[in-house]
Design a protein that fits this description.
Chain lengths: ~170, ~200
């Protein structure tokens, strides 16, 4: 944390710190992330699969573009502050906050048309003939037409979901 | 001392022969002697072709024709219902869960899925490509009924041939004539399955 602030003060160090904080190791160095979301991610296809390609926290949560990245970092540091001030330092508190945190992510991904998903999954290169019938039917219609974006249909792809009563699509 | 050793050896021998016999003759699904390390079978894969399967009896909960890996079903979310609930089927084009799932135990209709039907996987399961280890001799109810009907037909045919009809006053009419209006009634007299 100290390093993070120092990095902001000494502009030269900024990018280095940005890179350092842009790793999964950094994200899960804080135990609230390690104990909750990281453990859940481990059971999903984005952690272990037949191709051995995996997604890390920043792959889904940090934009690749520099300006977006900074903006996101400011937002993420709010979550870090939450930790420091002890608002989400237990599982219960995390679960209580989860809907709010998830909604932030849904909103972000909705607004950028699921940019982070598309950094790895490019519709252009999806071979529908190799997808299941359901996937094919959904992707070739509502996704392709732009009516929906990945996160509209794939909520909870990496973590457990909070109570979704009232959330669109459930 | 010597006696003791002999006794001990004999005991051991008995033990080994017993194991050998058990290994050779006991029918197991293990496929190898209990003392050997087996090479595990390949894991079967989940059938994911979205093709509906026949039900083995009318009230059978249909099996799931796709994979459900990591589908969350708990107090917070029911991923299955995000496609199969009444509200969602127009968009998903998935089959709606049966209306019975919207009833309480007294048959009253509810606005949403009944709590007793909430945990889909208690009744519905995906299928894998695994070959059964033991042949299943289950017979579909329609198949057994057809067999019964055949049997009955053969029996009544022989009864007619031997002219030993014991019931009813129909013998003047030929039995089992196709299109004969009383066909069903005659059947009923001979066999309770005739009405089917």
């Amino acid at each position: 944390m100290g390093g993070f602030i120092a990095g902001i003060i000494f502009w030269g160090g900024f990018n280095t710190v940005l890179e350092a904080t842009n790793t999964e190791t950094f994200c899960i160095s804080c135990h609230e992330m390690n104990n909750n979301v990281y453990q859940e991610l481990k059971t999903t296809i984005h952690y272990s699969n037949r191709s051995g390609v995996r997604a890390t926290c920043p792959d889904c949560h940090v934009p690749h573009k520099w300006t977006d990245k900074i903006a996101r970092k400011m937002q993420a540091s709010k979550e870090v502050w939450g930790k420091i001030f002890g608002t989400i330092n237990t599982r219960e508190k995390f679960l209580n906050k989860r809907l709010h945190l998830a909604q932030n992510e849904w909103q972000r991904l909705k607004a950028n048309n699921s940019l982070e998903c598309r950094n790895c999954h490019d519709l252009e290169f999806m071979d529908y003939t190799r997808q299941s019938k359901r996937a094919q039917a959904a992707h070739s219609t509502r996704l392709e037409s732009g009516e929906k974006t990945c996160i509209d249909c794939h909520k909870g792809i990496a973590h457990e979901l909070p109570d979704t009563a009232g959330v669109e699509g459930f | 001392m010597m006696k003791k050793i002999i006794f001990y050896l004999a005991f051991c021998l008995m033990g080994t022969s017993f194991v050998a016999v058990a290994g050779d003759t006991t029918a197991t699904l293990r496929g190898n002697a209990i003392t050997d390390d087996a090479y595990p079978e390949r894991m079967p894969t989940i059938e994911n072709d979205d093709v509906k399967r026949a039900r083995n009896y009318p009230m059978q909960p249909p099996t799931i024709p796709h994979k459900i890996d990591n589908y969350q079903v708990n107090i917070n979310v029911n991923k299955c219902l995000s496609c199969h609930s009444r509200r969602q089927t127009e968009e998903s084009q998935a089959p709606m869960v049966s209306v019975t799932h919207y009833m309480d135990r007294d048959g009253n209709f509810l606005a949403d899925v009944s709590p007793r039907r909430y945990f889909c996987n208690q009744c519905h399961v995906p299928q894998t490509t695994a070959k059964p280890l033991i042949k299943n001799t289950f017979e579909d109810v329609s198949a057994s009924l057809r067999k019964d009907k055949e049997k009955h037909r053969r029996e009544t045919a022989s009864v007619r041939k031997n002219k030993t009809i014991l019931v009813g006053d129909e013998p003047t009419q030929p039995l089992l004539q196709p299109g004969f209006p009383d066909h069903g009634r005659i059947h009923r007299r001979y066999h309770f399955l005739g009405w089917i």
